[in-house]
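Moderator note: this is an archived Q&A kept for reference. The question asked for a predicted structure of one protein chain; the sequence and the answer are reproduced below.
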Amino acid sequence: MSETEYKFRVAISGCGIGGLAVAAFISIFTQGNSDGRIAVDIYEAKPEVSTIGAGVAIWKRSWQVLQDLGFEEDIVKKGFKVPKDGESRGPIFRKSDQPTEGYDFHDHMMPYGPLGLYRPALLEVLQSKLSADCKIHTSKRLERHDVSDDGSANLVFSDGSTATADILVGADGVHSATRGSMFKSLGDEYEQYIRATFSGTIAYRGGGPKAKLAEAFPDHRGLEHPKVWCGKNMHVVSHPLGPNIGIICYCSKTEMEGKPYHKPLVTDAATEEVAKLFQNWEPDLLPMIKNVESYNAWAIHVVDPLPCHVSGSVVLIGDAAHAMTPHQGVGGGQAIEDAHILGRLLAHPLAIKGKIPAILKLYEELRLAPTQEAAEKSRANGMMYEFNHPNFLFNDPTHPDGPSREELEALGNTVGLSFTWLADVHTDEDWAEAESKLKAIAEH
C-alpha cells in the first residue's frame, strides 16, 4: 500500500505490553476497512522483543477488554487458566516484624481472581494480532523528538537515524524518552515531570525450590499458600508457584520518597545481605529468604501525577504516563486499558488526520484521572503493608507502640476493601462515552 493510501502513520516508541497492545487494537479495529488503514511502526530499543519481570496480573476490567477482542482462545492454548467470576482467595497477611512467632491478621478474599500471565506469553499473543500494516524495528532507542509546524512528529534515535509520523505514542516505560522530550518542549515549569522519581523502596526479587525448603522444614507455612509478611517499613510477598516459591522483599525508607537516586536501578544482591535485613523478624521467614540462591535488587521508580498525557500529536501511555508501585498489581492492566481506548479511537472511521490533537486530548480526558487514582491506591496499599499509612501508623512518634490485633484486623479489612474496584467492569460504558465524544469532535 502506498504512503498516500494510509489515513495516517503512527509511531510507537516501546514494544512492551502497552506498545504492542496499541498496535494490536489498531490492527483489530481497522481489519476489513480498506479506507481506514493505519501504518504503524513500533520502535524497540532492545535487539529483540522482550520484557522485564516474570508475571503480570490481569484483573477483571482488563480481562474483559482482552476477552471481548478474542484473546481468550490464544491464552488458553498457552496453558493458562482463565479467571472466573466470584470471590477468590488471595494471600494471607501476617505480622512478622518481631523475633518471636508472628500471627495472621487478614485472610484476603479477592472480589475476582486475577489472571496471572507470563509476560513473554502475553507479548506473543499481542504480537500475533498485528496486521501487515504494523512493522517492528528493533535496536531503535528513541533519543528525542520534536513536532513540526504541520503537527507531525520527528523522531531521532540513538544510532543517528530518524523517522516521521503523524502520531507518536510514548510507550517507552518509566524512564521514557518520549515523556522527557514532551515536557522539555513545554517549558522550564514542566521540568519536574521529565524524570521518574524514586519511590523510596528497594524490591529484592528471587525464587527458590519448594522441595529444598520442604525437606528442611516440612511444615513451613510458606509452602502452600501466598503470604504477605508485614512489618514496619518492610514487607515480604511469598508465592508458591509450581516447583518454586517466588519471593519479593520490599524495604522502604519513607524519607527517601521523591529524592534523587544516583545508584544503579537494578543490581545483584547476595542472599546473606537480604537475610540480614530481616534478622530480627519471626523465625519462619529467614529460612524461606535463605532458600533463594541470589536476588536482584530493584530501585522502584514511579511517575508522579502528570498535568497531561498529551501534547499536540504526542501521547503517553502505560508506565511512561503513570508508572506506579506494584502493591495492587495493576500496572500492566492499566497499560492494556490505555491501549484499548487509544487504539479504538484512532481506528474509528471518524478519526481523521485533521482531528488528531482533539482525539488525543479526548483519550487524555478519559484515562488521565483513572490511571492516577490507580497509582494512588497502589501507593496507599504499600504504606498499609508497612504500617506507614496515616490511618494505620504504628511504631512511630505519633503511635510509639506496635499495632494491636484489633488495629491489624481493621487494617486488614481496609486492605480487602481497597481491591473491590478491580471487580467493577465498565469497559463497554467507557467505550460508549469515548465514541459519543468522538462523534462530537467529528461534527465540529
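Archived answer notes: The two ends are 30 Å apart (CA to CA).
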